[in-house]
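Recap slide: 3-isopropylmalate dehydrogenase, sequence and predicted structure.
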Amino acid sequence: MNAKIVVLPGDGIGPEVTEQAVRVLQVVARKEGHSFAFSERLMGGCSIDAHGVALTDEVLADCKASSAVLLGAVGGPKWDDPTAKVRPEQGLLGLRKGLGVFANLRPVRVHPALVDSSPIKADRLAGVDILVIRELTGGLYFGQPKGRDTRNGAERAFDTLEYSDFEVRRVVELAFRLAKGRKKKVTSVDKANVLESSRLWRQIATAIGKANPDVALDHMLVDTASMRLVTSPATMDVVVTENMFGDILTDEASVLAGSMGMLPSASIGATGPGLYEPIHGSAPDIAGKGIANPVGTILSAAMLLRHSLGLEAEAASVERAVDQAITDGCRTGDLGGKLGTKAMADEIVKRLEAGR
């Protein structure tokens, strides 16, 4: 396998955790005889500082021409002015749109050795293995019109929540395809009692459910889903939902695993390179201290191997090395341990090197 991987370290702790994920990918390449060519580019706040925009046309072109893109995190207090016309998040949204990645896959699995790290009671966490599929290119984040104006002497801000049928159909169909390799259960999350866009979503999900009778489908309002995630998460398997709901629910789900630093994600489309990133943010309060948890980014690299490069065995070997390190008591500070970013990655690499 010859692959070109664009690395976007981004801001805050992004450079620290992506460095360790690249190390892991290099070990995989060396062990299995692959050739991975890495190229590092600017995106986010660092790109605003250097180029005045969060994502340049040149960087987007490089990403489109790659086999996959590995991202750290974007944003931070330096660029957090709500009145600013250029913001780091614009780079992330532009990258997703430019790559045509319409589905964000966020697995949430509770490692048995980390049950005590979660604020949720241990009996609620047994058997938790959820795949949240978030629609990524529609909804409030992209709908038009949006902006601010003055009406009757009052300042007004507005956003538009819109979905077309094909946007809903492709992500729900993906959820059903992936569910067939799991427990064959899909939970479609919406707000159909209030939102017209959710009524379209539910209509399409229902039709796809009838076309796939071997997969159980249930509909759940987003407020109910937010409660179910913490009261009985083991009852969920594949959860599919729209952009903003998925953004919020997956951050909530991170507490099940004990830390946001544990969770990876993959953003994929029908064709072209995928985008891989941990779900945590740039964590500017700990940036530069060498204490960030690299596991979410390393597991994102495993998803890169699986979904963009088709290297299932290699992806599984990385995941096993992570599991073994955690089982053996390796912990960063967010999980009550004392290992720094590099030391935690060292433990994972050690087990990856020794694995078969």
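The chain is about 40% helix and 20% strand.
Residues 14-32 form the longest helix (19 residues).
(End of recap.)
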